[in-house]
Structures are given as C-alpha cells and as structure tokens.
Amino acid sequence: MTNYAICVLPGDGIGPEVINCARRVLDTLTARGGPGFTYDVHKAGYDLFLETGHSMPDNVLVAAKAADAVLLGAMDVAQIPPQGGDPLGGLRIGLEVSASVRPSRTIPGIPSPAADIDCVVVREVTEGLYSRDEYMGDDDSAYAVRVITRDASTKTARMAFAQAIARQQASGKPARVTAVHKVGVLKLSDGLFLEACAAVAEEFPDIEYETRNIDACAMEMVREPGEFDVILATNAFGDILSDVAAGLAAGLGLAASACIGDRWAYFEPVHGTAPDIAGKGIANPCATILSVAMMLRYLGEDLGADAVEHAVNAVLADGAVRTGDLGGSATSAEMTDAILGQLNAQQ
Ligand code: ATP
C-alpha cells in the first residue's frame, strides 16, 4: 500500500474543524483499501502568533518541504501584524508555488445564482498588488507596489493552459483561456503580464486564448457565467474573481483550491477562518474535502479523488444532510458522516 506523508496546518478559526473532517475522509479511503496517510501536524497562523510571537516557525516550512503534500485549513492572516510574519506568503514562496487553481461549478441540487457555471480561476499568488511592498509617503500618502514578473506570470499561465488541456481532455469540448488585465491603465505591469501569457499561449495552439479587461470580465461573469472556462489572472484580480465565481456557483462552503509548483504543492479551501461560526461545529467541510480530492489527484490517486468527489456530490444532490450555508441544519460532523456513508457505499 502506498503511504503518503501529509503536512497538516490546521490554522485558525474553522480551519482545525474542517481539517478534522477532511482527515476522516482520508482515513476512510485507507480503510477501504486505498493509500495510507501519515500526518505531520503543525501549528501556524494567528493563534500561534498570539502564543509565541511568530505565525510560522522555520521548522514548519522544513516539514512542508519534506512531505508529499501540504493540507491547510485557514489562517487569520489579516490579524497578524508585520512583526508576526506572513505565514501564507512564506509558505507560497518557500514551496515555490506561483499559481492557485480554484474551480467553481454549479452543483445539481444546490441553489446558486448561476445555472451553468463551470470554470476555473488560475490566480498568481506571490506578487502583484499583494506583494506586501507598501510604504508611507511624506505628503500624507501611502503607496503599494504592484510587482509583476515574467517568471511568475509565465508559471501561472502555464498552469492555466495545463488546466485547459486537462479540461479539454475530460470534456471532449474545446477549452479556452481568458487572461484578465487592465492594461489600458497598468500599461507596464499588465503589459508584461499579457506578454508572458501570449508567449505561453503560442505553445498551446489547440487552446483558444483571449484577453479581457477585469471590469468587463467581472460583469460578463455575472451576466454570462457559462461562457467562461479557464480564467488566468494576477493576484488581486484573481482573488476577487475566484470569490465571484464561488458566489455564482455554490458559495465558499464548496470552493476548493490547489497551489501546485514544480516540486511542492499545498491544498486549502478558498474560504477564510470564518470567525462568525468558528467553534460552533457548523462549518461546511466540503471545500476542504474537495481540496483533499485535488490533493489526491496531484498525488496520482485518481481513483480516490473520483471516489471523494462522487461522495460529496451524492450527499449534495440528495439534500437530506446539508450545513447551514447550503440551507440545512447539519453540523460539520453530520455532513462528514454522510460523505463517509456515501464513500463506504461505493463499490
Ligand atoms: P478572509 O479574509 O480570510 O477571506 P473572511 O472573514 O473575509 O476571511 P471567510 O472567513 O471566508 O471570509 O468568511 C466569509 C463568510 O462565509 C462568513 O460569513 C463565513 O461564516 C462564511 N463561510 C466561510 N467558510 C464557510 C464554511 N466552510 N462553511 C460555512 N460558512 C462559511
């Protein structure tokens, strides 16, 4: 039996709650004869900062690099002051991952504003407007540096086209990559981003490639959500558009993500720490469980990934057990029990 070492960073708020649910799913796969998982659990995030003054000690990155994959809950990064460090940024830079892959699609049985959305946002995650390079001017002003590099843009574009190829192969339908920008205003930075994207697009003549202004793209996503396939974006634009896509589909409770680099990868739900529901045991665990499915696919465990996705979809379609964000009253544990029930019922 293959055994995978998973570095687990539960984080803050609902992070540990949804991670526990996801681990139950992995352990059930093992019990059904699937691969084994060894967990190396580390504290990181705001709670750790409060305890120790550091949000991510060096040994966490060492453990993350030693593992086959990293599974993250959520970290309350907004609360951590600059002297406490930047755990997410540190993880992304340390693991050399440039792009986050965030799929969103309408799920049968789940009410959503969009009837037919099925897209994936591929977002750069290490630079752009979130480069954290900010400073005060001497004229009562503040500045944020928007960093765009050809290297990170190229890696993100490659990830977007890889997604397009995979989607084309899976669906048998032509795939399209839409690069999002505001080059009329951000002439240099988005000029460089688009140049890098166009160069990668030339390597993939079978994939349709187009560019759209961020504002027009946001409006079109709301008006014609079914028109989008792979959306390729810089950090802040992608952050916003992936939440738009999640909102148009089934909400943050179902939005999973993967950050995959050449050597390392980490997986996390798109949602944050949800302080309003933390500690109540009512968070929807599906986003994290679907992130685990993405992790299984990355590890080459396609059968396990399919089984987990089918189990989640079956529970959602059945509708008897749903958490509050989906209009039900189930706890996280009850939702997980239902998913495990579906997993165990599969042949
Ligand atoms: P961040 O800045 O980290 O994104 P946030 O507070 O802006 O954090 P979230 O933590 O994602 O955003 O929460 C946004 C809303 O969605 C909250 O009302 C929260 O309760 C809800 N929410 C987020 N995740 C879940 C979940 N897994 N299950 C149920 N509700 C959720």
Structure description:
The protein is of the alpha/beta class and 347 residues long. The protein has 11 helices and 12 strands. A 10-stranded mixed β-sheet has the order 2-1-3-12-11-4-5-10-8-9, with helices on both faces. Strands 6-7 form a two-stranded antiparallel ribbon. The protein is globular and about 55 Å long. The mean pLDDT is 96. The structure holds adenosine-5'-triphosphate. The site of adenosine-5'-triphosphate (ATP) has 15 residues, from loops.
User: What is the strand arrangement across the widest sheet?
Assistant: 2-1-3-12-11-4-5-10-8-9
What is the helix content? 40-55%
Could you say which structural class the secondary elements and strand pairing correspond to? alpha/beta
Q: Unreliable segments (pLDDT under 50, ≥5 consecutive)?
A: none
In total, the number of strands is 12
C-alpha geometry: globular
| SSE topology string | EHEHHEHEEEEHEHEHEHEEHHH
User: What small molecules does the structure contain?
Assistant: adenosine-5'-triphosphate
> Could you tell me how far the N terminus lies from the C terminus, measured between alpha carbons in angstroms?
19 Å
Radius of gyration from the alpha-carbon trace, in angstroms: 20 Å
Report mean pLDDT, rounded to a whole number. Answer: 96
The main sheet comes to: 10 strands, mixed
Strand share of the residues? 15-25%
Helix count, DSSP H or I runs of 4 or more residues: 11
